Amino acid sequence: MYYGFNYKKGEFYAEGVPVREIANAVGTPCYIYSYSALKHGFEKLHSAFSDIEALICFSVKANSNLAVLRAFANFGSGFDIVSGGELFRVLNAGGDPSKVVFSGVGKTEEEMRFGIDSGILFFNVESLEELYVLDGVARKEGKKARIAIRINPDIDPKTHPYISTGLKKSKFGIEIERALDVYREAVNLKGIEVVGIDAHIGSQIFDVSPFVESIRKLVQLADTLAKEGVDIEYIDIGGGIGIQYREDEKPPPPDLFAQAVKREIANTPYKLVLEPGRVLVGNAGILLTKVLYTKVGALKKFIVVDAAMNDLIRPAFYDSYHEILTAYESDAKREKVDIVGPVCESGDFLARDRMFPVVKRGDLLVVQSAGAYGFVMSSNYNSRPRAPEVMVKGEEFFVVRRRETYEDLIRGEEIPGFLR
Ligand code: LLP
Questions:
Q1: In the chain, which end has fewer C-beta atoms inside a 10 angstrom radius, N or C?
Q2: Range of the domain at 130
Q3: CATH code of residue 304
Q4: What is the spatial order of strands in the sheet that 17-18 belongs to?
Q5: Is 415 contained in some domain?
Q6: Last residue of a domain, one of 239, 260, 279
Q7: 117: CA distance to ligand 1 center in Å?
Q8: Mean pLDDT throughout 281-302?
Q9: Test site for ligand 1: of 57, 59, 162, 198, most ligand atoms within 8 A of the Cβ
Q10: For residues 225-250, average pLDDT
Q11: Is the shortest distance between the CB of 238 and ligand 1 below 6 Å?
Q12: 140 in the same domain as 115
């Protein structure tokens, strides 16, 4: 059981609130986040780095709800963003722009302007062409854009291919062999101020050695640059720390991860920047869903629930595993089932061939580890209104995003005159 969630008196609780109560109040499907779990997770990582100069920039793409962002802002977190929309969210949540790093291979000029005018800490630049465009935008604004160059360190993080980003064949970053030339070019641009080096090698990584290998390469490059008179202030090592999804998985505890990272960076003049997403929110959230039907097919038994791939796409998209529990302690006989949603696609499943207690129509189920890349990747596919998000603190719960309505579904759409 993860921090903030537990069975009490036979019922599944988010902190001090039975999830049944939340289901009664807001319906299902619904995302539930534990405030204490967010706080606990941040403090654990933060204190593991408290003896060096380190800035934790929560990766907004993992969970961008305003209340979640405000919580992190209150904890003192910075933010890693990849779009103007994420910057807008961070500012609206009261995030400090001077603690924001802006990553991503395809920033538009408009997004660059927004970042420069907001006074963000730095841009992670991913190509020579982007560097020139950023320089132009900054000069037009009469300002300098602070930058790090994202290096592609060519390291295999041994994770899902869709979320490996530091390999030579990937679209991200600039090869380390070419980086020196790009830095030499960057220091001559009037609209650019070089402040850092950046890499992000992938996500859901369990092994600390790829991180260590990557940091070594970054530190080496920073040292080489120093000899040429280019002073690097920040080394940004990206995100990617893995979390537990299955009971038998053992990700590195934050302090162990921190120790390995600090060994590489402690005796250098560089400040550390981290961009963790999943590790800070993944197990702080669940998706609550209700059994609609149980159905015996020719070859399989199905549990049809009211959450679908449009609510949580990870199982369909990455074939990823999410632990699923009943919202009440059950000693019912277990049987092998597929837990599926109402969407008209065979890929619409939350679990396949899972041993699961016998359940019936109306039972509540808890999909665990849904705090990261859950709601943020949800869509309106099959014209399903997106689920509400709820934050629990102690004995209280707060709707931090209401359920979408049918009106929300068609907002912005128009039937042109010729069809009238
Ligand atoms: N920094 C950059 C530049 C990134 O691209 C990412 C994630 C992060 C930080 C945060 O990584 P984390 O600490 O969360 O691993 N949708 C996928 C994960 C995609 C990750 C993309 N980049 C999933 O559901 O597993």
A1: C
A2: 35-279
A3: 2.40.37.10
A4: 5-8, 11-14, 17-18
A5: no
A6: 279
A7: 26
A8: 96
A9: 59
A10: 96
A11: yes
A12: yes
